[in-house]
Design brief:
111 residues, mainly alpha, 4 helices, 60% helix
Length: 111
Amino acid sequence: MFEMAAPIQSPAKCEVRSVIRFLNAKGERSAEIVAVYANVMNGQNVKKWCREFSEGRTDVHDEVQEEVMTWFKWQAADFYASGIQKLVPRLNKCLTNAGDYVENLKLCTSS
C-alpha cells in the first residue's frame, strides 16, 4: 500500500484521473487505489479508469461526456421553465373562473 501526501482540496477530475493513471502504471491494484480515493471519486469510477488505463487509454479527460451531460442538464432546465410558464395563464384562467376551467373545444363538422 502506498502513502498519500496531504490531500488536495477539491481536486479537478483530470487531476484525480492523472494520479489513478500513474498508480495504475506503477502496478498498484485498483482495490488499493479505490481505498485511497473513495472520498474523492466513486469506487466504480476508479475501477473503470484503472481498467481503461490498463487497456491502453492515455487521455485523462472525458470532455465529450461532460459536455453532453451539461447540454442535457441545460435542456431539462429550459424544458421545465417553458412548461411552467405555460401553466401561468391557465392558472389565472382557473382562478378567475372560480376553479371551473375547461378549455373550449370547437368541433368542426363537414357539411
